[in-house]
């Protein structure tokens, strides 16, 4: 019998072979995205609505689709965001494809039941200004929005943009032969540039820049082009003051503020799924070890708990949340069959970190697709090896000598990996990848916290006295809220309330009391002593867990 690892490896080889039947998928542009959104709203008016939550500096709307049965804002919800990083433009297709697939399947028993329990807030592209660069005449991987920013602080904005020196419509790299350079040809593949080992004597050295000209003669290339602020660096957690692309202050941009305001206003959201460069699904999180639990951050009784101040700031995933992420990560690999791990990219002020550490929700983040590197090789080297074997062009621009005004008398060449070659899958695999991620999202939604009453007992104690006891059980895999959000003011507190009938009196037990956070498959017990006959009603839950109700006829 083959092991799962062997099966997944074989599946990847099949995908790899199919990868190069075409160079890359044709991802959806902004106009087509809006048309497809409107088609969904028109086709499924009872299940889907759309609104713009803001307009970017570039004049593009940030759209959010609400998908669910009647009164969707009153049900537990998951937010699904694409376009978090403009260089991962295919994530727009993944998220829009999710919306299309779940609505198409809304008549099936499983999805119909799911949409009766869970609402989805779907953001196909939270940074459309950056994504638009993929469809421009000059293509490069852009993360910045359309705001006009003086990135190099020389009192002139946008004066040093990219230039397409070889006129191929792609921005790659330039390399300049230089005995003082710090780069050399790669050992994995000579077409790639790698950091030089300066202890080696016989090696040709280069300096490497992005393709363009030093327009302002400050020794830097393309450091002040169009835009902007990076949506994925503009959030409050670990925000980098004065960082390039970070913005004047956290949440300074229409896009980031609109998304944050929407999420803060929707207390029914219990989890966020983000498609972008960060990842906690392709690779399981590290073991907790001595990481803190939420109790570490509480102050003595009677004092308000400090959540993000001084030494009490959360800096790592809490243990119980880590266990849930591990379960979800395993499920992601099982459903998608993806192997290896995506290249790590840690942005200060990232959306996914904010969603967990400051918004206090479970947050699952992934690029949605990646190239699994050959053992000991880089993704770039693997990409080129696969392209060579399958005789595919378009993923690499061969090094070509040019005349460059900033390097007179020196050998200058343009070339390198084509933009988006590592983030957009082959066209033949696009639909399959979208479908796999759709299946994953619906599987995660099925793990939602689910409250139920168990061990219900009503005892007639005589003299019109009744002793009522029951348990509130969380039958879901997820806890009723992330541990990081347990004391977050933007997480609704679960409560259980008793409603006696007219003429009834609660002798013991509280009419309204808090239900502490419940892990998956855990229980809290409550009891009351009630005087008087009639109907006694108990309601438990919160917006992010859903509410349950039961009644007893005391007679």
CATH structural architecture of the largest domain: 3-Layer(aba) Sandwich
Helical fraction equals 10-25%
State the CATH class of the largest domain.
Alpha Beta
Q: Looking at CATH, which topology of the largest domain would you report?
A: Aminopeptidase
Roughly what fraction of the amino acids lie in strands?
15-25%
So, the CATH homologous superfamily of the largest domain?
A: Zn peptidases
Give the tally of β-strands: 20
Mean pLDDT: 88
The side-by-side strand order for the widest beta sheet comes to 1-2-4-3-9-10
How do the strands and helices of this protein lay out in sequence?
Blueprint: H1 4-19, H2 30-43, E1 48-55, E2 61-67, E3 77-81, H3 90-104, H4 109-115, E4 119-123, H5 128-131, E5 173-177, E6 183-185, E7 193-195, E8 206-210, H6 254-265, E9 269-275, H7 319-336, H8 351-358, E10 362-366, H9 379-389, E11 396-402, E12 412-417, H10 427-445, E13 451-462, E14 465-474, E15 495-499, E16 505-508, E17 512-514, E18 522-531, E19 534-542, E20 546-554
Parallel strand pairs: 3-4, 3-9, 9-10
Antiparallel strand pairs: 1-2, 2-4, 5-8, 5-12, 6-7, 11-12, 13-14, 14-18, 15-17, 15-19, 16-18, 19-20
